[in-house]
Specification:
Distance between the termini: 36 Å
Helix content: over 70%
Strand content: under 5%
Shape: globular
Radius of gyration: 16 Å
Order of helices and strands: HHHHH
Structural class: mainly alpha
Largest sheet: none
Number of helices: 5
Length: about 130
């Protein structure tokens, strides 16, 4: 039951952080799909950075709990997969197939690059 609590608390923080970031990007007049792309890439970067740091954290007794809280709870809730899928669906309904395909490719590719960059930076920082 402790595991569920840790994931839930992390998710609450992540959802609120996503909402705050989205509202800040909205004030900057950034398009909805671009704001979601930015938030998802930020989350991917943090996941890569965190996953690279986990081996150093494993020496502590709470490493498993930290992974549950941060990577599954916080980052899982911070990333906006459902909004991303909704944007793709919306584009398909409007018959904007090329734009949907472009959004799909850019989102996946930039997410992988962001994750790799986080891993790289964390490795540089720790060693």
């Amino acid at each position: 039951m402790k595991d569920v609590f840790l994931v839930s608390i992390g998710a609450a923080f992540g959802a609120n952080m996503r909402f705050i970031l989205y509202k800040k990007l909205e004030k900057l007049k950034i398009a909805n799909y671009v704001a979601i792309l930015i938030i998802n890439n930020f989350s991917s970067f943090l996941l890569g950075f965190f996953l690279s740091a986990v081996p150093q954290i494993r020496y502590f007794n709470f490493s498993f709990e930290l992974v549950l809280f941060f990577s599954i709870g916080f980052l899982g809730s911070l990333s906006t997969f459902s909004s991303f899928i909704h944007n793709l669906f919306d584009l398909f309904i409007k018959f904007k197939f090329f734009r949907a395909l472009k959004l799909l490719i850019i989102s996946i590719a930039s997410g992988i690059v962001s994750l790799a960059f986080g891993l790289f930076l964390s490795n540089q920082y720790s060693g």
